[in-house]
Design goal:
With about 325 residues, the chain is an alpha/beta fold. It folds into two domains: about 25-115, Orthogonal Bundle (Arc Repressor Mutant, subunit A); about 155-315, 3-Layer(aba) Sandwich (Rossmann fold). It contains 14 helices and six strands. The longest helix is centred in the middle third of the chain and has 22 residues, at about 135-155. It starts with a strand and ends in an 8-residue tail after the last helix.
Amino acid sequence: MRFNMVHIAKQINFREGCELACPAGYNFVFMSPMGSSLFEDRIASHYNDLSDRLRRAADHVLANPVDVATRSLRSIAEESGLAPASYTRLAQALGYAGYEALREELRGAVGQRYARFSDKAKALQEDLARETAPAFLHQHSEAVIANLAMLTRDLDPERLERLVNDLQHARQVAVSGGLSSQFLAHHMVYLARYFSGQWRVCGSQGQNAAAALSDLGREDLFLLFTLRPFAACSIRLAEAAHKQGLRLAVITDTHSCPALAVADHGIVVPTETPQFFSSHAAVVSVLETIIGMLVARAGKTAQERIAQVADLNHDLGEYWEKP
């Protein structure tokens, strides 16, 4: 396994007995952290070692934890198009005594199920028809807070330090993101260039991604943001970077992201909300944490450059000032 996986469970998990304001009908079901989070830890540790068939089985279990916990193996197998034996072999590959042991772990928890954008949008409209705006705001905020709490609890500080160390010592850092992740790449580079001139966005605003990637060498680092649904160009860029021998860091929201298979550093961040789209709040928190750690390490040099850039912005009239 090439990458340093920082595994953060995809579900929004709470301790048993924890009170969470969640209006009825919002399609949220919560679980004890002793359930699927342990299963996902095992998946994160073994995913790259699984065969394609067992990966398909693992993906189906992760996407349908409630069904796996409550329905027969035969029905799960028929629905997924896999043989029952595939799920038995998956359980054994993950260190369980058998499939029933895997199911027993999932029975102790109920995971939030992922739906298509259109399905989530429909559910969202139905919920809003029943609830007031303040109730929805509260429920959405609780989901975001839960993501941030899980991030704080589960992110491995040592692995984060290793990523920051590579970023600090890289000759150049190229950052990329497709679809909804584009702004993450731009935001990170915007902040980084306040204290370092070695950062740039790769493959955006008319730039040729292949040309930008070809400028990088083994002393550089390619940082990729890619969230579900993955941008095809992002996955291809990750594969190209790996083939070129570049160091690759991937920040995503699921352990099954194809780019993780070729990454040196991987961070999986919770992004679940009642919205039809993923929340970027926890991803931005990781991004800004990394920037803060880099500034702290850069010391006086960073302070001087930040002051210089700020002064130039004032001179160029970038900041609005009252006449």
